[in-house]
Amino acid sequence: MDIPKLIAAQRAYFETGATHDIAVRRRALQALQASVRRHEEVLCSALRADLGKSAVESYMTEIGIVAGEIRFALRNLKRWMRPRRVPTPLFAWPARSRVRYEPLGVVLVVAPWNYPLQLTLLPLVGALAAGNCVVLKPSPGAPATAAVLSEIVGECFPEELVALVPHAPQAVEELLTQRFDHIFYTGGGTFGREIMVRAAERLTPVTLELGGKSPCVVGAEADLKLAARRIVWGKTLNAGQTCVAPDFLLVHESVCDRLLVELQRAVERQWGSDPRFAVDYPRMVDDAHARRVAELLSTAGGETVCGGEVLEEERYVAPTIVLNPDPQSRLMREEIFAPVLPVLTFAELSEAADALLAADRPLALYYFGDEREGRRLCERVPSGGVAFNDVVMQVSSRRLPFGGVGASGMGRYHGEASFECFSNCRSYFLGSKRFDLPLRYAPYPKRLLGWLRRLMD
Questions:
Q1: CA nearest 234: which of 249, 219, 222, 221?
Q2: Is the bond preceding 94 in cis, omega lying within 30 degrees of 0?
């Protein structure tokens, strides 16, 4: 694919103004909606091949989320595009003020492999709703899903509106040498920093959806059975390869022993006595990632309460709980991205807060227990998002902007936030020709300064 030629064609199409038309945007979204619906069965098969996902998990975490996002955009697009009146200062009367959300131009979306459908198409929905032309770069780590995505994009859109760049050596490198009006990246922090450096060369704005070690704090007042069930669900979803999965637990010392029992019960309840043979239990994306998890466990220290089995050739990692691992181990320094759950204890909530403040800002912060205690914790510890007495579910709401802070990312999307992410929030000041205040022009009367102080305060 000739990338410079492709981007030039998209820019030429954008500059015709065609994508400013709501009808063009609606047709694009409707075409995507129909194609995803037609390819549902093929997508489920591809996600099973890439990540071992069941049909239920594929729909719940990928296809259904994309379908819902498209419906939400179609339902609200007219309202989002409508110019918004804002008050005009009295001294500027009788002028009028408006805010319009206008498209940025040609945008690049670089997607990861862990949710290869959702994290490619959700940004695309926002970019199309906002009236942009889009270049998509899916991850080669999920090749079966990338192939279906290529088919969907090819049948829905002309290349001058949306184009998918297939995997090729140095494809991302070549893309980053081009001029875009926005870059949207989801993935690891190391490459996120590289993208930000490259974008800075052209002053290109970026949205970075990264990750990190999202903590889950379990207080003394927590419903331990409920907490265990939800934590195990969130930690084993997609075999732990979820950017907002609870990365590790901080548990009040008075309830730690009981929680460990409930966690083991929850694992068996959800995945049976041997999860390896559970039909719906997902797999690591490849054997290299399974091998990395084995290395993390071998150097973690602490006590393996349950699990610990890694079969690289099957890409299988058992649900694993490690009590009191070495704080300096790789397990506690790196994002785990696997169904391995370290458990640490604390005596006072302030102690837990101090430990979290010493680390990078997480993408999510979870708290199980008394909501007032949780609010006190969140007032001290910043994070991209928060969930009380649940995990991961904050991502499912299209009315909650999603994104990180600090090392976990920058920018927000989902629902209306996606539309705003890919738009230029443009100010319009509509001056009046009917009235021209003479006091604005020199020479200024001696009393004008006093009048202005009273008028503008």
A1: 249
A2: yes
DSSP state of 205: -
The angle subtended at Cα 118 by Cα 112 and Cα 119, nearest 5°, is 35
Residue 243 known to be catalytic: yes
243, 256, 373, 420: which one is catalytic?
Answer: 243
**For the whole prediction, is pTM greater than 0.85?**
yes
Work out the number of other CB atoms within 10 angstroms of the CB of residue 440. Answer: 10
Number of separate helices (H) and strands (E) present in the chain? 17, 18
Cis check for the bond before 443: say yes or no (omega within 30 of 0): yes
Q: CA 369, CA 367: separation in Å to the nearest integer?
A: 6
| C-alpha R_g of the chain | 25
**194 among known catalytic residues:** no
pLDDT tens readout for residues 309-348: 999 999 999 999 999 999 999 999 999 999 999 999 999 9
Query: 234 Cβ partners below 8 Å, 6+ apart?
Result: 242, 245, 246, 391, 392
> How many Å apart are CA 156 and CA 278, to the nearest integer?
37
C-alpha 272: how far from chain center: 31
> Residue 133 carries which side chain, given as an amino acid letter?
C
Given a contact cutoff of 8 angstroms between Cβ atoms, the answer to whether 221 and 373 are in contact is yes
The percentage of the chain sitting over the pLDDT mark of 90, rounded to a whole number, equals 91
By residue count, the chain amounts to 457
Contacts (Cβ under 8 Å, ≥6 apart) of 153: 136, 162, 163, 164
Banded pLDDT at 449 (limits 50, 70, 90): confident
Torsion angle defined by CA atoms of residues 109, 110, 112 and 116, in that order, rounded to the nearest 10 degrees:
40
**Rounded to an integer, what distance in angstroms lies between the CA atom of residue 175 and that of residue 185?**
13
Q: What is the pLDDT averaged over residues 214-220? A: 98
Query: Which whole-number Å values give the CA distances from 326 to 56, 166, 167, 251, 329, in the listed order?
Result: 37, 42, 39, 16, 5
- Are 452 and 119 in contact by the 8 Å Cβ rule? The answer is no
Give the whole-angstrom CA distance, residue 167 versus residue 170.
9
Task: Walk across the sheet containing 84-86 and list its strands.
Answer: 84-86, 96-103, 423-430
Alpha carbon distance, N-terminus to C-terminus of the chain: 58
> Maximum Cα–Cα distance for the chain, whole Å?
88
Written as six digits, the tokens of 396 are: 């499912």
Residue type, 274: D
Given the residues 209, 262, 373, 416, the one annotated as active site: 209
